[in-house]
Design goal:
Blueprint: E1 13-14, E2 24-32, E3 35-43, H1 49-62, H2 68-76, H3 79-83, E4 89-90, E5 95-105, E6 108-117, H4 125-136, H5 143-172, H6 186-190, E7 192-193, H7 194-198, H8 211-214, E8 217-220, H9 223-237
Antiparallel strand pairs: 1-4, 2-3, 5-6, 5-7, 6-8
Helix pairs in contact: 1-2, 4-5
Length: 238
């Protein structure tokens, strides 16, 4: 994936999602008195906590869920975890990271792997997903949001790990001045240095030998195949 042009953030920046919109991915998988509720969406962490309760009430009303779901939904939206990291340093560096898609949305199965510029704070997962679906002729309108959400989940995890890396780096190099930051987290181990990989004028490309690895796979499943997959998923979650 060739990223958009962006400014370079070699030093520390304050914790946030490494995308244009600072939206937190939220995944709900709830069970109240035997009634299940699953959903995924993004949340603006700058919204007041009162909006979470309003959202929970509206969701329960629209989906005709029992009143007990209101408190459970509101409690499950963990914006506090994100806010606890705000103001702390993270080091995006000049790195690209692998993003993997392995999704089934209704009858559409998507598998792909591509590289994402973690240093590009102008990146837009939703726009990427829209282009992805258009290029591959995917008609289901629910696929694009699912792809964008999966990307945001992975980027959020990497951003959290980057904060931990910055903290570990400060501890390990305490008392040593002028040392450059070296990522030590799990995210850092999978990240690639853009300069080392592509030179100073870097652009993310897929090498010929990696075409088979990174080629997207999109399959349309029959109703029988979907039923079989759902039955398998239910057995695994028991």
């Amino acid at each position: 994936m060739k990223g958009q042009a962006s400014s370079s953030y070699k030093g520390a920046v304050k914790f946030r999602m490494p995308t244009a919109q600072n939206l937190v991915p939220i995944r709900l998988d709830l069970d109240v008195d035997g009634q299940k509720f699953k959903d995924t969406f993004t949340w603006n962490p700058s919204d007041p906590d009162s909006e979470i309760v309003v959202f929970a009430r509206r969701t329960a009303k629209d989906l005709k869920l029992p009143p007990g779901f209101i408190t459970v939904i509101a409690s499950a939206i963990q914006i506090a975890d994100f806010r606890s990291l705000e103001g702390q340093d993270m080091y995006p560096g000049e790195r690209i990271v692998p993003i993997k898609l392995d999704l089934r949305v209704n009858h559409t199965l998507i598998r792909d792997q591509f590289l994402w510029d973690l240093n590009n704070f102008e990146s837009d997962p939703e726009e990427f997903a829209k282009t992805f679906c258009g290029d591959l002729g995917i008609q289901d309108p629910e696929v694009g949001p699912a792809i964008a959400f999966s990307i945001r989940e992975q980027l959020y995890e990497i951003a959290v790990q980057s904060v931990a890396s910055a903290r570990e780096n400060r501890i390990s190099k305490k008392g040593r001045r002028g040392a450059e930051y070296t990522p030590v987290s799990k995210a850092g181990s999978t990240g690639l240095d853009l300069v080392k990989l592509f030179g100073q004028k870097s652009s993310v490309v897929r090498k010929r030998k990696e075409w088979d690895v990174y080629e997207p796979i999109v399959d349309l499943l029959s109703s029988e195949e979907v039923d079989a997959l759902q039955a398998k998923e239910e057995r695994l979650t028991r």
